[in-house]
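Thanks for the sequence, V.! I ran DUF1304 domain-containing protein right away. Repeating your input here for the record:
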Amino acid sequence: MLALLVVAALVAALVHVYIFVLETLRWEAEATRRVFGTTAQEAATTRPLAANQGVYNLLLALVAAVGVVLLLAVRDGDAGPALVLAACGSMLVAATYLVATDRTKVRAAAVQGTAPLVAVVATLVWLAA
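Predicted structure:
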């Protein structure tokens, strides 16, 4: 279960680093605009908001990664699982909110939320064992 937890949390972190890159570094690029369904004008107008959101995604990724490192370094400690649950739980809530507020974003929510869901469940099962 520990291996599944670690892999899922790290995949979740990598997905959120990728989202950070899109939202913060490549927001106005044509390929990114296609992903998010925005026009050039909308992307230019919303760039500061997207960059701010991207930073949040990067921070969630970092918290998940630090949680994994602590989990592997101190297997009996509470900090690692707590950080994984906090980061991946937040990612999962964001994915749920995305699909709940816009049914056309099911695919994006699945990409954003599947690995965090697996990480949360695996962490809870690992803690219960």
